């Protein structure tokens, strides 16, 4: 992977294809490789940019707390380094939270938004408390805690579960605890949905066990013009479970 220096970290990324710039942001606690099945389906239409978000994959992180806005600023730094003023952004789950934070901070730099198995709402107090508890457990016992608690909830398909389990086990404790706290402190960006002027694409599995499809339906009700693609029988990993449908939906951002 190539790397750039931004905001005191090294951000690793891959770039494939040509066309409209489209950034694909992975969810928690994964890396860019979750998009591998959709890259060949999109690279004739898009200039695809696939970063590892701070701390994950080959990107480094910091031990001090950081916010979603800082993760969005990492992305702005990456676009600057690539000489791109504007891009469409598709974010999976936590990547969607970063995409929304980017849309808030840099409204003129985002040409379209896709939320894949994600949501605009912030955490409930219970969810927030749960994240801090999980972060303490990960500090004490390592990322195995997350692999055990999360991998089987991500998909009904065993090969997808196996892939994400091994990917989770490759991530560092620091990345995982840092991101848990950042997600806990993120703001509710539902109001941004109504003011967003570009196309919005919502791709969501009908049996997503982590973020229920109702979260996407709520966004659609805030913005009736948004494209909602519900994937029957898919879970939290549409880009791996239904790559053709996911790629076709992302082409709306062309
Ligand atoms: C993710 O898949 O990125 C996370 O499950 C999102 C979250 O925990 O809110």
Order of helices and strands: EEEHEHEHEHHHHHEHEHH
Mean pLDDT: 98
Number of strands: 8
User: Helical segment tally?
Assistant: 11
Q: Per the principal axes of the C-alpha atoms, what is the gross shape?
A: globular
Report strand %: 15-25%
| Main β-sheet description | 8 strands, mixed
Strand neighbour order, sheet with most strands: 1-2-4-3-5-6-7-8
Radius of gyration: 16 Å
Report the span from N to C terminus. 25 Å
**Structural category:** alpha/beta
Extract low-pLDDT stretches: none
Chemical compounds bound to the protein? D-malate
Percentage of residues assigned to helices: 40-55%
Keywords:
binds D-malate, eight-stranded mixed beta sheet, 11 helices
How would you portray this structure in words?
With 254 residues, this protein is α/β, with parallel strands linked by helices. The protein has eleven helices and eight strands. Strand 5 (87-92), helix 3 (94-105) and strand 6 (110-116) form a beta-alpha-beta unit. Helix 2 (68-81) packs across helix 3 (94-105), helix 4 packs antiparallel against helix 7 and helix 5 packs antiparallel against helix 6 (158-169). The longest helix has 17 residues, at 125-141. The mean pLDDT is 98. It binds D-malate (MLT). Residues 27-28, 93-94, 183, 210 line the site of D-malate.
């Amino acid at each position: 992977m190539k790397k750039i220096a931004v905001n005191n970290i090294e951000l690793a990324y891959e770039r494939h294809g040509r066309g409209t710039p489209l950034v694909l942001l992975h969810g928690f606690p994964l890396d860019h490789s979750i998009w591998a099945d959709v890259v060949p389906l999109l690279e004739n239409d898009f200039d695809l940019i696939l970063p590892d978000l701070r701390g994950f994959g080959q990107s480094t992180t910091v031990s001090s707390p950081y916010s979603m806005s800082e993760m969005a600023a990492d992305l702005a730094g990456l676009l600057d380094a690539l000489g791109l003023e504007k891009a469409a952004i598709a974010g999976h789950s936590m990547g969607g939270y970063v995409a929304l934070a980017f849309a808030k901070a840099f409204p003129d730099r985002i040409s379209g938004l896709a939320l894949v198995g994600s949501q605009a709402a912030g955490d409930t107090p219970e969810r927030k408390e749960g994240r801090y508890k999980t972060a303490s457990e990960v500090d004490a016992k390592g990322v195995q805690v997350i692999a055990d608690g999360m991998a089987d909830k991500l998909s009904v398909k065993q090969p997808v579960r196996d892939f994400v389990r091994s990917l989770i086990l490759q991530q560092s404790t620091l990345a995982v605890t840092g991101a848990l706290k950042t997600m806990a402190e993120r703001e509710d960006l539902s109001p941004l949905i109504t003011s967003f002027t570009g196309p919005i694409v919502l791709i969501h599995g009908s049996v997503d066990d982590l973020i229920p499809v109702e979260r996407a339906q709520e966004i659609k009700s805030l913005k009736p013009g948004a494209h909602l693609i519900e994937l029957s029988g898919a879970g939290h990993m549409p880009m791996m479970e239904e790559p053709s449908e996911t790629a076709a939906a992302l082409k709306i951002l062309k």
